[in-house]
């Protein structure tokens, strides 16, 4: 009987610890997604410098798909200007597609209007509303909604696609690594 009580106490402690340590989704994710689940997370590094922490949130559990409802939250650990963020985004899209960044000048302009200069602690969340619409939040406040052809896969593919510069990080975010 004493052993049984010890096992029950240990199981209760583990359950309580798991529940208490489970991370709640940011408010904007809770607002936009039904039953948000953390799909995966990753810390991006460059030459040993931690650049940002990323978390992929989905509605419900299961295998990630670009066709489902999801949100990507990036918490910056290093300062970047909005110009650098917007330009590097279109450069990555062009790299993957084999085109020139100038082909995405309209998207770059939209990103410039949505983004802010980031510092350590700034959180930007993108929510995939449809194949061509993405809502952006900065520190929990909606900054804009962008529309652009195939924006969901183009934009979020920077972090989530197998063709990402950080393929290992993309796998982790998608819950496969």
Write structural notes for this entry.
This protein has helices at residues 2-21, 27-32, 82-97, 105-114, 151-160, 167-173; strands spanning 36-46, 49-59, 70-76, 123-130, 133-138, 141-147. With 177 residues, it is an alpha+beta fold. A 6-stranded antiparallel beta sheet has the order 1-2-3-4-5-6. Residues 1-21 have low confidence and may be disordered.
What percent strand?
A: 25-35%
Radius of gyration equals: 18 Å
SSE class: alpha+beta
Largest sheet: 6 strands, antiparallel
Give, in spatial order, the strands making up the sheet with the most strands.
1-2-3-4-5-6
Judging from the principal axes of the Cα atoms, what is the shape? Answer: globular
Instruction: Give the end-to-end Cα distance, rounded to a whole number of Å.
Output: 41 Å
Uncertain segments of ≥5 residues (pLDDT<50)?
A: 1-21
Mean pLDDT: 86
Encode the helix/strand succession as letters.
Answer: HHEEEHHEEEHH
> How many individual helices?
6
Range of helix content: 25-40%
Instruction: List how many beta strands DSSP finds.
Output: 6
